[in-house]
Specification:
This protein has one helix and no strands. It is an all-alpha fold. The radius of gyration is 21 Å and the shape is elongated.
Length: 55
């Protein structure tokens, strides 16, 4: 059996971690979209909120 180099293991594990992070982000974005659609369907807002500013 061929030994796997440390470099390959590092890269492989990092790719797996990135895929998992992207999957979580995808789920977060889908949930935000669902919530935004629900808010939209509730009707017009009573007042327009201001967008948060980056500091």
């Amino acid at each position: 059996m061929t030994a796997i180099s440390k470099e390959y293991l590092l890269l492989f594990n990092t790719v797996i971690d990135a895929e998992q992070t992207l999957a979580q982000l995808h789920e977060t974005l889908i949930e935000a979209q669902r919530q935004a659609e629900e808010l939209f369907l509730e009707g017009p807002p009573e007042e327009t909120p201001t967008a948060p500013r980056n500091r």
